Amino acid sequence: MRRRDFLKACGAASTAVLAGQTVGISQTSGDVPFDDELVFLLSDVHIRPGFRTVDAFASRIETLLAMNPRPRHLLIYGDLSQFWGKKEDYLVLREMMRPVEEAGVRWDLAFGNHDRRAPFFEVFPERVQSTPNVPGKYVSIVETPRADFILLDTLVEGEGDGAIDEQQRAWLEKTLAGYSKPVFVGAHHPVEQTGLAEMLAASPVVAGYIFGHHHNWLHVVADGLPRLTLPSAGYFWDFGYVVLRFIGDEAVFELKIVDHFPDLGEGKDANPPEEPLPKWLDVVHRKTGEAFIVPLHKG
Ligand SMILES: [Fe+2]
Questions:
Q1: Which of 21, 27, 144, 270 is 20 to 30 A off residue 197, Cα-Cα?
Q2: Rounded-to-integer distance, Cα 182 and Cα 293, Å
Q3: What are 240's strand-pairing partners?
Q4: Dihedral sign for Cα atoms in the order 155, 158, 159, 164
Q5: Superfamily of domain 34-295
Q6: pLDDT tier at 269 (50, 70, 90 boundaries)?
Q7: How far is the CA of 46 from the centre of ligand 1 (A)?
Q8: Residue 25: pLDDT above 60?
Q9: What are phi and psi for residue 233, nearest 5 degrees?
Q10: Which of 2-6, 28-32, 70-74 has the lowest mean pLDDT?
């Protein structure tokens, strides 16, 4: 069975087919209500002009804008660019985010190892924080009615791994100490690379840690800290997105997987073969509809 046929058959595929690299996401018409508690999560977009990741990201955005009610928030957990912060990558992203912004969806991001701060801010000057939470870093707090999200900056330019320096750690410690509302801390890199796991697990308000980087949907509660790895928007390994709903006293992260294609070591231009291996399709079957449910309050 061809990849497209399989995905269609199992109902996991986004049916959006976009012509070429022209980004033509149309806003849904009419009065689509917002759900301020609904959060759309993406990671590892790896945008590059003319590459298949553009179509994949466009499909994710189209899905977001077609939701009714519409999520108020979109959070992107890093690697927005493919070629290490090339300005051309961010210029494509700029165009693709326009309908999101025009639709009234608020979006925010964490930098990944494929990103670079200077070219990003050149293309998105409105993102420059006049009073940065942490000087030299892009650290933001996104407020929603039931829980907030702190997006940290783990980018060490030129390195694949991430890190949190003492200044950012001190800011986070002080910020969490003043919090009473549940908060999901997150960044592009896994918590092991931040040195924050113990602090987050000990905090009475931290409900979990959200990150990307691995391009695979994974979830675990380890050492008292729930950890969620997001899929890639459409590069390698798990392709998809996550929708977060607050139900009762729990946060329900639901995976929407649309494809799975491992990095075959054929370079950055590699495309999924038209005839996928059954074990890749099994991953899509197995993960379809998976959810990670996290209590908002500890104890
Ligand atoms: Fe990535």
A1: 144
A2: 14
A3: 257
A4: negative
A5: Metallo-dependent phosphatases (3.60.21.10)
A6: confident
A7: 7
A8: no
A9: -60, -30
A10: 2-6
Distance CA 278, CA 214 (A): 22
Residue with tokens 């595929």: 13
Digit-coded pLDDT (tens) for 83-121 = 999 999 999 999 999 999 999 999 999 999 999 999 999
Q: Quick check: 21 and 50 in contact, CB under 8 A?
A: yes
Q: In what order do the strands lie in the sheet with 225-229?
A: 140-143, 148-151, 183-186, 206-211, 225-229, 218-222
> Is the separation of the CB atoms in 1 and 9 below 8 Å?
yes
CA of 146 to the centre of ligand 1 (A): 29
State in Å: Cα 60 to ligand 1 middle.
Answer: 16
What confidence tens digit (pLDDT) does each residue in 5-24 have? 545 544 433 333 333 333 43
Cis check for the bond before 69: say yes or no (omega within 30 of 0). yes
Interval 116-137 mean pLDDT: 98
Domain ranges of the chain: 34-295
**Ligand 1 center from residue 256 Cα (angstroms):** 18
Ligand 1 centroid–CA 119 distance in Å is: 18
Q: How far is the CA of 78 from the centre of ligand 1 (A)?
A: 7
- C-alpha of residue 180 to centroid of ligand 1, in Å: 33
